[in-house]
Specification:
The complex is a heterodimer of chains A (225) and B (595). With 225 residues, chain A is mainly alpha-helical. Chain A is built from 9 helices and 2 strands, in the order βαβαααααααα. The longest helix of chain A is centred in the C-terminal third of the chain and has 15 residues. Classes of the chains: A mainly alpha (225), B alpha+beta (595).
């Protein structure tokens, strides 16, 4: 059996928060937080620990923590990506994967045979000791691969992990939604749409889908592959 | 193969057209109706969980499983077709209600002269102006024939809008260029967002005739003639690609299924994949399908209604070997002919508004439009185009992931990192463009559908191959639309105080010039099993009855001889009502050819 891999983060890294939904079924995390443990161990579903370190570092350069607020680190973007790659999306379960595989014109989009799991694995190898580099060197390394399918994919997933509903493991404590003033899913704006016409919506405490409904919502990435 | 007991009518596909046909049959006759739907059952309560952008907008959780079946594409017969491997240019729904569950609810009628396109072009232009490979034809019916059926669809759904042409009387605030309507819309138009008010003001300043676009997302509580009551839309913005959790958006599961479930003569079977219509001597005998457990089943029926998406309808006829496949080299054959895809365009301006737009408060189909350039209206001789289209804008629906990241040119060197993050946050929910453009796609001899020789579905049956490309005519339409849109954007900037940025066309994704499958266009495919006045002109007659097989009806946008300038749902359902009337009032009493 495969040895279980963990992402080890300082407990305060994720802004001191993790929603229960982020790590469903992993009670030791909550315990770790209660005990104010210095580190938290996040079980990985796809990445190895060194792979997670590379991807985490990439997402932090793409959407950095800086003077403008929280970034990929606080949002737990790498956790979001790990879950996506472990699920049907990572395995191309819902992509047409019959051959023959032929190269085509850009108008036909990605026609490659590699699924997202393979694209990540190969891309991470190419980056070598990326996680150990300084920020400026990391940026140079990313500029060099900016046009690749791998980089484009990581960039897309970084934004997804920043601004997704927390039920997918990213946007922890809705730090992404706070950055942009997104209130989360709200069922009724009928009486506000004219009131706030040309007027900024007030800053409200965002609410996740599970908070709104008061129960667990099944995420597609948890569907058996 | 298991052989079931015969039924009167079998409907292939439980989407909008199939369930509407079933509803008409089940409520007006005593015939038994079985609907075979490939996907899962769906109901209102399913949609409580779906306010989730990742699964529904980005991973397409409500769409067909494309790993099981897709289409292939090539630009010309000289190219090799490749499969559309993930949802890109179109998004086809599955499950009870089909694409009628996740649709946006844009509810326009086609303009009056769409239905007589060939005659209209001939009257308007000298023969030298008409491209030689154009294959447009009149629709077998006129505005007068279809108008009552449009009204029935609008009353069934509770379309919210304002008439602009009531029995010939032009009314400001509605679309004054629409064909004469027999009745006002059943429901008031949508509430206006800030972006809609800016669009309206600018359009009026330029002398256009803006109107609030008609929508199937109820702007007010409504009870339809079938007694179905639905509540007003709450502007939650989870509309396009989502099912409506309160039933405000007109969907087959809230309009048709509640009626059908009460009928003992109606049966819906989910998880059933129809592979073939069985026929002999010009008569359909029933359908062969695999049920959810993979068992092979034959369902005999007196009447077969083919009611899947455009692509599915044409593929089913090709796989069943019903009709003569179209040959673009000779022009002979009708099956697969006149494949079209709604044209879209727009400008290159980026507007940065002085205020947040609150785009997360929105309804599907809520927006503004003007039709001052529809059809032959104000055709610009310099543009050298045969037809115009409708300009739309002001719609919201911004979800946090997809709407993040628009920055004016020059604000950061790359689209990641700290500088970009700062600019993207600063501009979030504050940017927009000039109007989008939605236009007729005329039919051409070289755009058609047939079976792919290489790629297959999960059963090993050939995929549908699409052969289609834009021509210089569509590229000129796009250039024309950019000109109008950019001019509107300048006016929108002026009336709102927005800052305007002109982006190079190459960066706005509108100008590749060639048909592409990688990025979303619209899910509006038409043709391939078109209606015609004679068997030489069409696969089906004006009642959507197959010319060669009178007990087979092929309903939906596959019957459209070309693509009208706006979204096709209302027209597809109007034709379905008309087909249902003919089937019920004439065919069932006296089975045989209706024409």
């Amino acid at each position: 059996m495969k040895r279980r891999e963990f992402l080890i983060l300082p407990a305060r890294t994720l802004g001191g928060y993790l929603l229960a939904s982020t790590l469903a079924g992993e009670p030791f995390l909550a315990q770790a937080q209660q005990a104010k443990a210095p580190d938290i161990k996040i079980p990985l579903k796809f990445f190895t620990a060194p792979e997670a370190a590379v991807v985490s570092a990439m997402t932090e350069r793409i959407f950095p923590t800086d003077a403008n607020g929280a970034g990929a680190r606080e949002a737990g973007v790498v956790i979001f990506i790990d879950r996506q790659l472990a699920g049907p999306y990572g395995h191309d379960k819902y992509r047409y994967t019959k051959g023959p595989w032929v190269e085509s014109i850009p108008e036909h989009g990605y026609q490659g045979q590699s699924n997202p799991r393979q694209i990540y694995r190969e891309g991470i190898i190419q980056l070598g000791n990326f996680a150990a580099l300084g920020a400026a060197e990391q940026d140079q390394a990313l500029i060099a691969i900016e046009k690749t399918t791998f980089f484009q994919m990581v960039r897309t997933h970084t934004l997804e992990g920043m601004f997704c509903d927390p039920l997918h493991g990213g946007n922890a404590d809705m730090v992404g939604w706070r950055l942009i003033g997104y209130p989360g899913p709200v069922m009724a704006y009928r009486h506000e749409i004219e009131k706030y016409r040309g007027v900024p919506y007030p800053k409200v405490e965002p609410q996740s889908l599970e908070q709104l409904l008061g129960r667990k919502v099944p995420a597609w990435e948890d569907e058996p592959v | 193969m298991e052989r079931l007991k015969p039924v009167d009518v079998v409907v292939i596909g439980g989407g909008f057209t199939g369930l509407l046909m079933a509803k008409e049959l089940a409520t007006r006759t005593s015939v038994s109706v079985v609907v075979l739907e490939r996907g899962p059952d769906r109901q209102l309560l399913d949609y409580m969980d779906d306010m989730d952008e990742v699964d529904f907008s980005l991973r397409f959780r409500m769409m067909q499983n494309i790993s099981e079946e897709t289409v292939t594409h090539r630009h010309t017969t000289a190219n090799r077709a490749v499969p559309v491997r993930e949802w890109g240019h179109v998004r086809l729904g599955t499950g009870t209600g089909g694409s009628g569950e996740h649709w946006t609810g844009v509810a326009n009628r086609y303009p009056e002269d769409t239905f007589i396109i060939k005659s209209a072009l001939k009257e308007r232009f000298p023969a030298s102006r008409i491209p030689a490979d154009l294959s447009v034809q009149d629709w077998t019916l006129t505005w007068k024939d279809i108008e009552p059926f449009y009204t029935r669809v609008e009353e069934m759904m509770g379309i919210g809008g304002k008439a602009g042409n009531l029995q010939g009387r032009r009314i400001d605030g509605g679309n004054v260029f629409e064909g004469p309507r027999s009745k006002e819309y059943p429901v008031r138009p949508h509430l206006q967002s800030y972006a809609m008010t800016v669009f309206e003001k600018a359009a009026r300043e330029l002398g256009y005739h803006p109107y609030i676009n008609p929508a199937a997302t109820l702007p007010a509580d409504y009870t339809n003639p079938d007694g179905i009551s639905r509540p007003a839309c709450q502007y939650c913005s989870y509309c396009m690609l989502y099912g409506c959790m309160i039933g405000a958006k007109a969907q087959p599961t809230n309009l048709l299924l509640p009626i059908l479930k009460e009928k003992k003569t109606f049966t819906l079977r989910n998880g059933c994949w129809v592979r073939k219509i069985v026929h002999r001597d010009g008569r359909a005998e029933g359908v062969e399908y695999r049920d959810e457990n993979g068992r092979e089943i034959f369902q005999p029926a007196s009447v077969v209604v083919q009611a899947t998406f455009t692509s599915g309808n044409v593929r089913s006829l090709l796989l069943s070997k019903i009709g003569t496949p179209y040959d673009p080299a000779t022009g002979r054959g009708t099956l697969g002919k006149n494949f079209t895809h709604q044209m879209s365009g727009g400008g290159n301006a980026l507007l940065v508004y002085p205020t947040k737009l609150n785009a997360f408060m929105a309804a599907g189909g809520q927006g503004m439009a003007f039709s001052d350039f529809d059809g032959f209206n104000q055709l610009d001789p310099d543009a050298n185009i045969l037809r115009g289209g409708t300009f739309t804008g002001g719609g919201g629906g911004g979800h946090p992931i997809a709407s993040f990241g628009t920055t004016p040119p020059g604000t950061s060197a790359r689209n990641w990192g700290s500088a970009w993050k700062q600019a993207a946050i600063e501009h979030n929910d504050r940017t927009g463009g000039g109007p989008g453009f939605s236009a007729e796609h005329l039919s051409y001899r070289h755009n058609f559908l047939d079976l792919d020789p290489t790629y297959t579905d999960k059963w090993g049956d050939p995929l549908l191959r699409t052969t289609i490309d834009w021509t210089d005519h569509e590229r000129r339409m796009r250039d024309f639309s950019a000109k109008i849109s950019d001019r509107m954007a300048e006016e929108m900037a002026r009336v709102s105080g927005a800052k305007i940025h002109h982006r190079p066309a190459a960066t706005t994704g509108r100008r590749s010039g060639r048909y592409q499958t990688a990025a979303y266009a619209t899910t509006h495919l038409h043709g391939g099993a078109i209606m015609g006045d004679t068997p030489a002109d069409g696969v089906v007659n004006t009642y959507l009855q197959h010319w060669d097989v009178p007990n087979l009806f092929v309903i939906g946008a596959s019957a459209f001889p070309h693509a009208g300038p706006t979204n096709p749902t209302m027209t597809a359902l109007a034709l379905t009502f008309r087909s249902a009337d003919a089937l019920i009032e004439r065919y069932l009493k006296n089975p045989g050819k209706l024409v």
